[in-house]
Amino acid sequence: MSTHVYCKLNSRKSKDRILVPSDDNSRNIGDIKDDIFTKFNFQSSKHICHKHNAIGLDIGAFKNYILPNATEIVCPDKEKSIAYSLSVPTFMQNAFKDDLGWGIQMFCPLKIWNKTQTRQWQRSLWEL
């Protein structure tokens, strides 16, 4: 899988976009644009770790891609009209490691994340 792509934006300016693969390289878990890592397909019912009440990231993805290339992490929830976000240094200060059967991940407690309402109406227009 390619981890670095060159893409054109609507403004016709070119920007670098870094795709972030999972630690097993089976898929991309997100991308980094403008110093912001955005997690793909985040669904709170599936991706919030109930054991720790936390959001986790693959340790290799964090150390090799997010830490050197991003200043912020954003997880837009596809099920709710909420986006979870925090700075990379805050994630590092509060994260702990655990292996729940999918390899070692770094988890940051949900209470640390900033929660922002997103526009639900945009999603509902596509569902009509």
Task: Explain what the structure shows.
With 128 residues, this protein is an alpha+beta fold. It contains 4 helices and 11 strands, in the order ββββαββαββαβββα. The N and C termini lie far apart (34 Å). The N terminus is likely disordered. Strand 5 and strand 6 form a beta hairpin. The chain has one domain.
Tally of helical runs: 4
Helix content: 10-25%
Structural class: alpha+beta
Instruction: Domain count, please report it.
Output: 1
pLDDT below 50 for ≥5 consecutive residues: which ranges?
A: 1-14
Largest sheet: 7 strands, mixed
What strand line-up does the widest sheet have?
A: 1-2-3-4-7-8-11
How big a fraction of the residues is strand?
A: 35-45%
* Mean model confidence by pLDDT: 85
Brief summary of the model shown:
This protein has 128 residues and is of the alpha+beta class.
How are the secondary structure elements laid out?
Elements: E1 4-8, E2 14-21, E3 28-33, E4 36-39, H1 44-47, E5 48-49, E6 54-58, H2 59-69, E7 72-76, E8 82-87, H3 88-94, E9 96-99, E10 104-109, E11 114-117, H4 120-127
Parallel strand pairs: 4-7
Antiparallel strand pairs: 1-2, 2-3, 3-4, 5-6, 6-10, 7-8, 8-11, 9-10
